Amino acid sequence: MSNLNSVELKTLVPAKDFARSQDFYQALGFSMPWNDDNLAYLRHGNCSFLLQNFYVREQAENFVMHLLVEDVDAWHRHLSESGLAERFAVRMGDLVDQPWGMREFVLFDPSGVLWHIAQNI
């Protein structure tokens, strides 16, 4: 019988300024176990993605990531207190309870990629 089990799914996130984006994601709390001139492997807990030294404005501004966390209030408080949005000149939204059963806030990265950081409620 064939083994068709999946192991992992990663996306490649675009970066307008590759070095700045690497700094942003590390300041956000991701570790970077590996990188070269064109690609960086970023992870936080069991979540990971590949940051690529590639940028098309229309793609980046229509790219959305969703990070499900255990305590979204703690994430929002930590990022607010750290001054991440001001340091990287990005937008971060307020916490919102969504009708689909999630509490979340949005955060844009330096390339315009939209992140929804949420927890189930």
UniProtKB/TrEMBL annotation:
Pfam families linked: Glyoxalase (PF00903)
Residue ranges annotated for the VOC domain, each copy included: 3-120
Entries under SUPFAM superfamilies matching the protein: Glyoxalase/Bleomycin resistance protein/Dihydroxybiphenyl dioxygenase (SSF54593)
CDD domains hit by this protein: VOC_CChe_VCA0619_like
Ranges in a coiled coil: none
Source species, domain of life: Bacteria
Protein name according to UniProt: VOC family protein
Source organism of the structure: Aquipseudomonas guryensis
Lineage of the species this protein comes from: Bacteria, Pseudomonadati, Pseudomonadota, Gammaproteobacteria, Pseudomonadales
